[in-house]
Each structure stands twice: as C-alpha cells, then as structure tokens.
Amino acid sequence: MRLIDFNRSTIDLDPQLQLFWETTPTKRPLTDLQVVDQQLRFLSTGGRPLTLDQFRARVQRVAPTTPLFTAGPPPQRLYGYRLVAHQILLG
Fold this sequence. Notes:
Helix content: 10-25%
Strand content: 25-35%
Number of domains: 1
C-alpha cells in the first residue's frame, strides 16, 4: 500500500483512531515513523500508539507514492488495514 492510498481511504475516519500492526497472535502499537530507502516504515517501540491525526501531521512532507512497511527485521510491506473498536489494524 502506498501513502496516498492509505490517506485517501482514511480521509473520513475519526482522527483519534489508534494505529496498530496486526501480528499473530497479538497486535503491536505503532509508535513512530521513519523514512528509509524510499519506504515509510512504522516502528513499534512500546508506549502509546500514534493516532491517525498524529500520523497525518508527521507524513505531510513524505512523497505520496512512498510505500508503507513495518520496520522489521526484515521490513514487511503493508497491504491494507481493517477497523476494529477505535483502532486501525494494519497488515
């Protein structure tokens, strides 16, 4: 998924939704962002998850065609998300 795809599909969602990475068998909070090798990588370092509003503020200067990844290792491309109880679960 590219940044522009994510932004367009979430434009009408509540800006206070929290971002998580859906892993088996749990979910991990996405707490920070990094641009590495023309990839936007989500970091899960513990702590409070980013809200959709915080995410939008941090990616304003990132190219819209930048693909979304988890930080890894190794980095994993994100292909979509689903909504569950005030959360966006990316996977």
